[in-house]
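Pasting two entries for a bug report.
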Amino acid sequence: MKEKITCIDCLTNKTVQVELADNILQSVKTTEKAGDGNIYIGPGLTDIQINGYVNIDFNTFPITEEGMLKVIQAMVAEGVTSFFPTVITNSDELIISVLKNIHDLCLQNPKINSHATGIHLEGPFISPSDEARGAHDIRYIKSPDWDLFQRFREASGNRIKIITLCPEWKNATDFIRRCVNENIIVAIGHTNASPKRIIEAVEAGATLSTHIGNGAPLMLHRNTNFIYEQLAQDRLYSSLIADGFHLPPGFLKVVLKMKQDHAILISDSTMFAGMECGVYDTHIGGKVILEEGGRLSMYENQKLMAGSAISVLDGINYLLKSNLADLRHAWSYGSVNPNKLINNYQNYLNNPESSDLVLFRYNKNKISIIAVFKNAKCIYSVNSY
């Protein structure tokens, strides 16, 4: 069955006509024909940092095939067509087990392989200082170790595409260069580095700041600090958690203005994202409370955040609702920009037959997903357009 849908390209604001045949995308062409002005199309969203979703934790071994497919299904409903399972600081043995687990799942299931397009290793080569390390376990934090990293890479089947580390370790600059030579994206994060060390890391090839503004001490020098220096480095992309809880609107506005096409939205979500509001016991002990809107905090002290519980789409909607970005920029932060970072961006108007695309409605500064295409095949849709 053939179908034609007239919609607006959210990146160019031009009217385009999408042609489908048996739920397979045939073409996307600009047209003079008027649509209803309410259906938009854009590239699929990419989340380069996700620790878990819908009660599945990417740092608890083992991750089952059923669990990973459950995450994919939930992510697709949010317009996310590619994501990077993120493995954080832990014992060497557990990191290796989880990395191999993800690799094996990708080998045995083509669907998992097509959605989990890379692994983000966040740690263990980060700062051991309390405020900078955040929730990372100090017992397992260590200086960059190339031989150990090669063991991690081997376990992952070379699927580690991004590594977050802090540049204040003495051997960090050499480690960064070696990663870059192996085509691994190096991100600066969970750091308390001097501006000099930040500059050295960028000159060595670091290209990303991980969740800038978080995983940082509460008090910094008023003029000279690592956040300002990262914002000043034009070669650095900056990823952001835009949930309205981790960062205030003013800080988000500054970063978005400074970074523009180098700004990236991430979820940095925990396993509690996508779950119903309530009180939950965590596997590391202690209770957390998930509130309406995605705020996740410690149950005993609700001033303390317990991680993120949003999707990239939630971040986009927050920027729109808060008038921090228009539709074109907000969608780009979650799609175009991360794919440019990982060197995976293509214009879907030129390559519709191999593109990941999302159709959505846009009303009152809120996006609602209506259809998602993976490699031109419809993998999710609501009842009607």
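Entry 2 (this is the one that rendered wrong in the viewer):
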Amino acid sequence: MKPGLILLHIGLCLGVTNAANASPPNVIVIFCDNLGYGDIEPFGSTLHRTPHLNRMAKEGRKFTHFCVTAGVCTPSRASLMTGCYAQRVGMHNNPRDGQVLRPISPYGLHPDEVTIAEVLKQRGYATAIIGKWHLGDQPAFLPTRQGFDLFYGIPYSDDMTQAVGQRIGERLRGNEWPPLPLMENETVIEAPVDRNKLTQMYTTRALQFIEANQNAPFFLYLPQAMPGSTRSPFASEAFRGRSRNGPWGDAVEELDWSTGQILDQLVELDIDENTLVIWTSDNGAPIAKEAGDLSRGSNLPLHGRGYTTAEGAFRVPTIMWWPGTILADTTCDELATTMDVLPTCARLANATLPDDRIIDGKDIRPLIMGDAEATSPHEVFYYYQTDQLQAVRSGPWKLFVPLSNFTQHPHFSKADIPVDGGMTPPLLFNVVEDIGSTTNVAEQHPETVERLLKLADAACEDLGNRGQPGAGQRSPGRVQSPKPL
């Protein structure tokens, strides 16, 4: 067991029947890849058919201000697993790969970090990850070394194939990348795996895990590979060509089917009222360049694309479902984050949390249960692009801080940058009232700008900024002489 764990005896006196159940709930986290805010019907899509997610929202609770902590895969997943900003755990950027881990990387999530799986195993949970890991492909970093009893899936993104590696060549050791491996625990069982079948295969294995563990508490982390990073996502034969939006729509509609299979099984096994299901995405959709082209997803009505610090990258469609505990057909408009999943699950299970380190996530049980007086537990939320702080949110306000050196600004084009090479002006948006971030109100609210700039300074001291380390940062894991799987 990892050091610094203390027992937290916290009751669930929220006035909702199942919340106080002595039996700890099962937890399922379904984590889509690059699926945008506007890609499913409960969040406004009129293009993709998602009847099972419609049902999930009707029977559960939508979160309209649920944020990830990065606009890309690896750091977003690190935050979910550890309850921390990726900058806190050193998984935001590295000298070899940048912000997204590649095959044969010497870097990965540090073995001393405490994951959701490790926290819940203390309470006797069976734990499984079925899907995409992307927190290190070397043995020391695999899920089986981070609290998971079972790993069935791929170690990194499905677009990191041998063919792509050959095009990259010697850079990033691309010429050594293996065929895309399907793994069971620490063994490659198929290579290359058929990417068209990933959603189907993950669903089948998830159903098997749920059935096998129906009589004991379990944690299932289901990070789907789709819609993914490729320009033409994959889907099984039953779904290819069925949607009105090409391969992207096919992949989204198959994800909806997968979710329906899981919800139906929970009901059939009569464990639905003791199972919390969280459905969300690792970041927003990359979106196409042409307005109106939804072939690479939609973040509407939010502004911006994935891989940035725009709202369209950080705010993701989120639905939580727990029959008998979560109030049906409700919506939460308060700020919550993927970092909150770990501390919330720990308290639901009456498990332990580390007391020897900073955990950035908060307990959001009141928001989940629909407490009428509940507000966001986050005074401030930070938007980083790799190691650069670009924006800060507090309450309804989001401030893009002045920048002088950046590769891509979510709101400025090169033509808009001051010609004298100076700082960009601050941009302040009320992201509650102005959902599309259309109107900069910095001049009308100078006191808010000043307050958020002070919060930004605190973030830089704690989590670092532009190559300057922060006092509260921890190191990533690193191995010598990494080898291909």
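Dev reply: Rendering is fixed now. As a check, the viewer should reflect this: The chain has two domains: 23-369, 381-463.
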